[in-house]
């Protein structure tokens, strides 16, 4: 109890380019930031391979996590008049905000797909397991770690707290849109967060937005839409992700084939078996992965060596648009031709798909289900956003998907002339 | 010759948060950016350990190098009317700008001190050695690599080109001040670069500034001053540098003592002997170093393990002001006391000094000698900046130095009570 | 011819908060800026009564006109490789850009409605009439004024030039969205103009946008949409416009009734008769109007005096939403009640409607007809924007209208209690 | 008492480009903003004639006054933990901040000089006289107007309140530096106000700055220095001020000579006699002045007509540097020559001097005396800023003065050739 309410002698601040300053008064928050599990987030990039396309995007999840915390802190400050919360509720919100991304691995998106993992599960394990974070949370009170994990996992009984942390207009999204826009330097991603915070209201078990703030919310939704297509799904970054997947796939295969590595993938062993120890997970960050990739450039296996060389030195695959329905025949033919000219299509030909739902009012069963946005009209009535906004209505629930086919153009160009080469170039639209 | 003038089919641009866009039209520049030696700069942070203090400062030297190139490109665009240059001179400038930091190693400042290296020497080696960069430069013409190296080394005969790349108001400094301010988020570091570029003039073998731009230059000098003391010399970042030095020092000592490492420092071998092969140098970037540091947390040597744990997980030494003249006696006494309580002062007690000369008109023999800034008065006459500006005059040539003593406060606190502990705490001003 | 090509000895620049600098090299442009007709634009606010709501919006049409010129200048600079223009075509574009708003009167929107004028007609008159502007244009060549007027009037034969000046994504709109956002301080109005300029291409008689720039254009369209509803149609600014209209209407009526003014509206005489001399038009700017309004506060006519007091000292009418179809009966009843309590409904009750079409691909016959936006796909084919963009399609051609009823709440509150007062308050939803 | 504490039902906000939002909760503040005397500030430009040079600088004193209020509001919010103030003290601060510039007249600087007035005196008169502002303040309590006037006049007994409103780092200066930089678009004028507010502390009867904030304060002092020389004292704006003075001087002279005006300067009568009625002062704003200037362009007196034409249409005098000591002989000779060629030197030749003291620790008896800045060192001790900061020390107390001689170059050029003309041109350095 004493620890739960303990305040620092003097407020600490972090200079933050996005929110100007991040303010910390609670001893618990300060201590959590100092844990090795939280410091580890400095070695995980917020945007994975995006830095390959937007060189500014080298910022880490540490940055973002502080930002989400700060937004929640400001929201709670605005809510003080309206919310009769005890200090545990407040701390629960702040803590969940700070720790919500704790379980992210290196290049999460890709890594989770190849090894069939879920970072949310690891967030939970870090909070509940034998970690510095857990020690601190337990000191607050023995139930506290469980509560924090439940809020992040959206299963906590107090839905108001859950919706502060996870909704279609939560602190997580508001931070990353602005932060990623800032670091990439794109002109999208800006919206009037100060105004949105001013028109947010807690109402029973939800966060609602005063209807006078609708346009600011529209602007936020549009920012989100633009960031997805201009930044997050950029085809060049996806090319780097394709390489990454192929490397991990190759390493796994070689390991299963008892290939003799010069540099054994010891850090990956437990991922190959699927029985991942928490400590192994925590240890594997992006600097470790880069170490392996750089070392493997010198492996004898030419596929592994080539893929690693490409990833480390940005010799990416090229891409072409791919129409998933019409072009399956071409893809089949390309695979045959690749084999004939001695290029392994399992590693050198890949269709990557990106898909986004800019806003949805109802998505039960979706993996990334988030709560809809409600406007509170002047008469007090609630309206779901897409009912009130024509613009949002127009994009609401419309999934847009983009398919690209990735291939090693440089290698194809270097092939000796042959009919197959001509066919490959024609099918890929190469000049 | 053909290659020297080759233009891309379509201009390529990089989105840059500082300069909005970086524009590339020359095939040579495009090819240089694609080399492995240039891509390596993505794995070297521009500000070394500063990210420990300013979490936003995670940007790499790759970022900065593109920025310096872009500034020079704009300057040359402004100069087209005034400068009768051939295409080689132009390309020489652009190339030297792009490659000027190529030889930086991981956490350069610290690394160079411990192993007694000079990154400028490695820049030269990369340009002249057996590298992808050298192949491209040689394709321009066989003398070209040598010329580029000379420009960067400030020994090239055409002093106008040299002064574009290295002076007290060169593209290097203009980029890093703005870029580091942007990523850290501090409010210093801003000045009107557009105006400075507009008032720059080539004059014989110098770059001069039209006197009407004096205030913009004053603002730049002040920015520089503030960035040094607020960001670059921040005592917390220096604490991380102290740890880094101590780790490298310990590894070297253990290696010399034939200590049996669990993870041998193979990447460092040639640094221990001082006979550094270029390829070894290129391979050692910050991801590799972090791999070792993380692995060494599990070494048996308790000093190495502790120092690495501290660096990786940000358990830094604390600091206190240290008056180099008056306090030497105290330092001696502290070392004795440290030994008595079982803390090795060679690794756990360090005086770090930072020192800056905000502007100087004449610094012959200085390691980082840069050319003074000349204003061109309306009558055509040249005046050295500090003669014309009272503000600059007031800080010109005044070296300011700051000494701090670093120590492990956490460890001292955990010592059992003793007279020595009390004395240590008293001498360090610990509560 | 000599004058047409005359360049200033040294480029002049204007420091501009939106475009950083406005650059002038042509003597003709410099001379035009110096004319009294162009300087007059300093006394016409860009956003009329908007400053009443957004106190920052005090900027003038002078600002905006320089901005439009600067954008066109940059576009032409980008086009140099693609466009084989002679110097007259270039100057025609720049001049038309600079002068396009020359005929705006004080609080144009309102003023034109009350006196049934058209500022475009006055722009033409100023360009062709006996003015300093005309003298300069005639010096270029005798046909030049006519050509400039035709470009602004969209009747010029070279449609490429016309479309640079007037289309749905022209320099005019790009400047005012950004400028008005800057001065009001709202977070809308930002889009990546640098990118849009980079992807603009002249193609036959049109300006087209490379399809890779579609998202930047979407962002621009959204900015426009938000600015209209958040800033331009703000109900409080419209309240000030209602007052303004009522003042002008009252003055006209009093004048027709041969009312004896203490301060005769001499500057307005020719507007009352409808036979407006160009010189009278030029003389009537916002400082002159404010002089009259302030003086008329002391007129005996209580309506004129009250309306002027309200406008000068910001004692505005309140407003309520008004459903044009359902509420006409209420409006009729309110008018009756107003008369019964002694308030003249002709001056104290007004329905104001705002209406916007965010983007339209085809609006023949519209007063403000502008050309649609074409994207150039990778295969060279043109696509009208709303065909390619779902978001734009969703708002394309959808007119949105907002009706508000304005009334003097303060005066109604001060009425002695009566049944009529109660009825008025009920109908207006007053508390 | 009830009124003193009355809060609005819902907080009102003004969108402000500099501080993002200005927040108002107090009924008193809201009512004061609505008064005609405060609304009048919309018709007085913050920077007088500066808009002639920097076209963006069209913002009014209304803007700035809201900004100063907002800064004080934030400071008081920060102080809540440290300051045991009653509600009157708080309101006194806010009110004084809001109203501190209430007495400014049109183009104050110039106007006050010509008519020998002092705006601070009029601020006091408006607060204490028969005005809407006074009614509101009296409603707070009958002594309140007097207290507000005393705070603004720096004679109030509570020096802490005085120093919040007037010191070398007060809210007034912090607002105008940032605001004027924003509207002009210059890159100076930025400093980290958020940080300065964070390190401000009330201490007895002063505001002190924690020493850790010294660099932010240095930055502020430098901003101030740059803004003075780059913006406030810009020689082109001063040229417009010279015209303005000459117009007022001419009108006064004509009036004294019983010249028959077409448009009598009725608004100026009481200024000519020096017995200025408050109501006359309040009525004279910049729109009224511009009305007269525009009307007087048609006066028969050729000097008045010409000066007004010049001011209205920006046909300014040119300037040359003037060395006050060495050139007095030249000035005398020029005056003679002017008379000989028929140009009245009283109206067409003027030396204007600007002079600034960037920071001073002690200026007793200065007209614009402001309190020095104190740093609070870690040991609690106070240090005056220039003792702690080398940079500030270097410019502290150093008055810098600039003299320019203004003359009508256009008119001189049009003179028929003569020896006198040649002499004039030579003396003025005209080409």
From TrEMBL, chains A, B, C, D:
It comes from Amphibacillus indicireducens. Transmembrane segments: none annotated. Pfam families: HD (PF01966), HD_assoc_2 (PF19276). Residues 61-177 form the HD domain. This is HD domain-containing protein.
């Amino acid at each position: 109890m004493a620890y739960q309410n303990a305040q620092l002698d003097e407020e600490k601040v972090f200079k933050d380019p996005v929110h100007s300053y991040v303010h910390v008064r609670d001893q618990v928050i300060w201590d959590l930031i100092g844990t090795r599990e939280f410091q580890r987030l400095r070695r995980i990039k917020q945007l994975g391979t995006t830095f390959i396309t937007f060189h500014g995007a080298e910022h880490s999840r540490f940055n973002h996590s502080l930002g989400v915390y700060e937004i929640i802190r400001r929201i709670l400050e605005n809510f003080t008049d309206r919310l009769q919360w005890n200090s545990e509720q407040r701390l629960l919100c702040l803590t969940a905000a700070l720790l919500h991304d704790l379980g992210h691995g290196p290049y999460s998106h890709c890594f989770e797909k190849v090894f069939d993992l879920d970072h949310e599960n690891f967030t939970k394990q870090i909070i509940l397991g034998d970690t510095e974070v857990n020690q601190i949370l337990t000191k607050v009170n023995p139930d506290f770690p469980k509560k924090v994990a439940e809020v992040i996992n959206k299963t906590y009984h107090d839905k108001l707290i859950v919706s502060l942390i996870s909704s279609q207009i939560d602190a997580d999204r508001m931070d990353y849109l602005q932060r990623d826009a800032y670091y990439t330097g794109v002109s999208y991603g800006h919206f009037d967060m100060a105004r949105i915070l001013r028109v947010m209201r807690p109402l029973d078990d939800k966060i609602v937005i005063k209807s006078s703030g609708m346009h600011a919310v529209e602007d936020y939704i549009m920012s989100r839409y633009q960031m997805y297509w201009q930044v997050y799904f950029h085809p060049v970054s996806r090319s780097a992700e394709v390489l990454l997947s192929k490397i991990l796939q190759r390493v796994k295969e070689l390991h299963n084939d008892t290939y003799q590595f010069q540099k054994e993938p010891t850090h990956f062993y437990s991922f190959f078996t699927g029985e991942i120890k928490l400590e192994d997970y925590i240890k594997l960050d992006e600097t470790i992965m880069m170490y392996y990739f750089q070392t493997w450039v010198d492996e004898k296996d030419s596929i592994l060596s080539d893929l690693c060389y490409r990833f480390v030195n940005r010799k990416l695959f090229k891409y072409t648009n791919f129409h998933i329905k019409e072009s399956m025949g071409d893809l089949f033919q390309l695979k045959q031709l690749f084999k004939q000219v001695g290029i392994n299509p399992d590693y050198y030909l890949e269709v990557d798909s990106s898909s986004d739902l800019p806003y949805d009012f109802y998505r039960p069963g979706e993996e990334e289900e988030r709560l809809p946005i409600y406007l509170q009209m002047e008469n007090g009535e609630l309206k779901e956003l897409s009912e009130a906004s024509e613009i949002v209505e127009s994009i609401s629930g419309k999934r847009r998907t983009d398919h690209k086919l990735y291939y090693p153009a440089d290698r194809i160009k270097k092939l000796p002339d042959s009919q197959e080469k001509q066919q490959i170039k024609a099918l890929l639209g190469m000049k």
